[in-house]
Amino acid sequence: MRKDWIFLPLLLGLLAAGPASAGECPAGQGRSGGAGTGPSAPVGVTDTVLGALDLAKESNVAAPDRSFRLRRLVVQPGGVVPFHSHENRPALIYVVQGTIMEHATTCAVPIVHRAGEVARETKAVAHWWKNESKKPVILISADLFPEKEDPHAM
Fold it and tell me: Which region is the signal sequence (predicted)?
């Protein structure tokens, strides 16, 4: 099997499984999305870009200076995906393996994300993630990435 097809079974599984709701802020714990803070650098995270499409070259998509990008992130025990915003970069995150905690500016308590769930990251999302378990967490991230940013922006 060609190496670039290794994730085909995973993607087909995602399509067949249908949408799965990710963990959400528990009832009564929401708060207005004010300024947030959190760790400013990744810790224990491997970020691999699996593929990308330059959307400026796709004639039927009006998204110049953007790419549609697919990444695999492995977050080690104690690892941190640093604080960032999705104001300019919508994304879908599929939790392949493990359980990870999201610390969002819109929730007073951490949000739990488990294997098999999809987190939807919209313009309203500013957050950071931490693996508080004893096993690595594997995430697949698909986003509309601004070409002028660091390709490993979390």
Answer: 1-22
Measured distance CA(106)–CA(98) in Å, rounded = 23
Instruction: Say if 14 falls within a structural domain.
Output: no
Q: How many domains does the chain have?
A: 1
Single pTM value for the model: 0.79
Q: Which residues of the chain have pLDDT under 50?
A: 1-8, 11-21
Residue 154 in any domain: the answer is no
Nearest to 104 by CA among 29, 21, 45: 29
Q: Is residue 89 part of a domain?
A: yes
- Exposure b/e, 12-46, CB count within 10 A at least 16 = b: eebeeeeeeebbbbeeeeeeeeeeeebeeebeebe
Contact 82, 36 (CB under 8 A): no
SS3 54: strand
CATH of the domain at 59: 2.60.120.10
DSSP 21: B
pLDDT digits (tens, 9 = 90+) for 29-39: 888 766 678 89
